[in-house]
Amino acid sequence: MHGIISVMAETAGAVSSSGVFSDINQDTFAPLVAEIKEVAQVAVPITVTLIGIRKGWSWLKSAIRGA
Fold first, then answer.
1. Which range among 1-5, 32-36, 48-52, 63-67 has the greatest average pLDDT?
2. pLDDT class of 25 with cuts at 50, 70, 90
3. What are the Cα distances from residue 43, in Å, to 32, 48, 56?
4. How high is the pLDDT of residue 17?
5. C-alpha closest to that of 34 among 46, 26, 24
6. 35 vs 46: CA distance, rounded Å
7. The dihedral of CA 10, 12, 13, 18: what is its sign?
8. Residue 34 φ/ψ, nearest 5 degrees
9. CA distances from 37 to 41, 43, 44, 45 (A)
10. DSSP assignment of 2-67
């Protein structure tokens, strides 16, 4: 039992010293960020337009009801 624990401790020490995330850097996420930016450039104006149309339609209906 003691031998297994020491092997596990050595393995954990080796992993923590080399770093599990040592291969992750800024370039790892560059394609993902670029894709999100491309989608956002299209999605944000469409979303704002649709919300504006919805609000305008709602205002127009309430103005007609109030008249």
1. 48-52
2. confident
3. 16, 9, 20
4. 52
5. 26
6. 17
7. positive
8. -65, -40
9. 6, 10, 10, 13
10. HHHHHHHHHHHHHHHHH-TTTT--HHHHHHHHHHHHHHHHHHHHHHHHHHHHHHHHHHHHHHHHH-
Identity of the amino acid at 37? K
- Determine the Cα–Cα distance for residues 42 and 21; give it in Å rounded to an integer: 33
What is the residue type of 28? T
Print burial letters for 17-32: b (CB count within 10 Å at least 16), e (below 16). Answer: eeeeeeeeeeeeeeee
Q: What is the pLDDT of residue 23?
A: 79
